[in-house]
Amino acid sequence: MDYRQLIYFMEAARLESITRAAEHLYVTQPTISKMLRQLEEEWSVTLFDRSRKKLTLTDAGAVMLEQAKKIRHAYHGLEHELDALRGLKRGQLRIGLPPILSSSFFTRVIAPFHEKYPEITLHLEENGSKKIEEALLHGDLDVGAVVLPTEESFFHIHPFIDEPLQVVLPSRHALAVQSSVGLAELNRERFLLFNQDFSLRQQIIAACRDIGFMPNILSESSQWDFIEKMVASGLGITLLPESICRELGGQVIIRPLSGETLRWRLGLIWHREHYLSFIAKEWLDFSIPVLSQMGQEH
Predict the structure, then answer these.
(1) Where are the domains of the chain?
(2) At 190, is the secondary structure helix, strand, or coil?
(3) Is 50 in contact with 88 (CB distance < 8 Å)?
(4) How far apart are CA 96 and CA 293, in angstroms?
(5) Which terminus of the chain is more solvent-facing, meaning fewer CB atoms within 10 Å of its CB: N or C?
């Protein structure tokens, strides 16, 4: 069995299309079709139901996919071991980062790490905490930064930010004259929140429910700067971490939450059971002290 066969098979299964898999892998469609046919002949099984508009895994295909992922993890483990033997001179690290985090924050870690290890490629994937956790569980990322809490039975966790959420209001909002705003005072407001991939969204909704109201969510986005512009336009209000509020322009009014315990806690996480490469270990050893210091500054 050729390792490439498994890669082509997994991509076809993920995209549910041989054509799209070929485009993504920069190979021809006949090449992938041939590899899949050889794989099916070698194991005397049918991996896909091709009678539908999109590829659908058969029972045998589902079993093959599960085992192929394990083989891919083992293959990556071999790559990482060899990278370690080369003294961390080459290799790659896959890091998940939340878009809500200021770009300048992690740059202060990434830049000196790259200077120390210039041949190590950092693949940065911006996504919400839920998607980052899923990617770590599936072995698609090495390390991630997520909003806490998360599932401690699955992940090692190192917190590095703990700060309050603040209310972001349109400049002419009635509550803007107050020095602080209580969460209960927002029960009639239109909320502009992050989408469902973001743990912060669920945290805000849960806090509102706890004091007796369900927030009226007007719009959702994955970008805090777009949410800021919608608030500035008078479409609604939002709650953002203190450090993000410092990045906002002068078109909105920022007020602290009074008497509330809503806080934004961020931490580095990595899977407890998955192989952790020497590069990933070096990244953690390098970044944790820096991030902890930056968290104290915030």
Answers:
(1) 3-82, 87-160+265-297, 163-264
(2) strand
(3) no
(4) 20
(5) N
Query: For residue 149, is the peptide bond before it cis, meaning its omega torsion is within 30 degrees of 0?
Result: yes
How far from 152 is each of 38, 168, 177, 269, CA to CA, in Å?
A: 42, 32, 42, 9
| pLDDT, position 92 | 85
Please, what is the angle between helix 59-85 and helix 278-297, to 10°? 80
Q: pLDDT band at residue 39, thresholds of 50, 70 and 90? A: very high
Quick: pLDDT tens for 81-134. Answer: 776 656 666 778 999 998 877 566 788 888 899 898 888 889 999 888 889 999
Q: Which residues neighbour 43 within 8 Å (Cβ) at sequence distance 6 or greater?
A: 60, 64
> How many residues are listed for the chain in this entry?
298
Tell me the pLDDT band of 24, cut-offs 50, 70 and 90. confident
Residue 201 has pLDDT above 70, yes or no: yes
**Which position has the token pair 């940065």?**
124
The two three-digit tokens of residue 175, written as one number: 């509550």
Whether pLDDT at 145 is above 70: yes
**Across residues 142-148, what is the average pLDDT?**
93
Structure tokens, 267: 């931490």
279, with CB counted inside 10 A (0-12, 13-18, 19+), is buried
- pLDDT number for residue 86: 65
What is the second-level CATH architecture of the domain 87-160+265-297?
A: 3-Layer(aba) Sandwich (3.40)
Other C-beta atoms closer than 10 Å to the C-beta of 67 total: 11
User: Looking at the domain that runs over 3-82, which CATH code has it been given?
Assistant: 1.10.10.10
Closest CA to 98 of 269, 295, 277, 292: 269
CATH for 163-264, options being 3.20.20.70, 3.10.20.30, 3.40.50.360, 3.40.190.10? 3.40.190.10
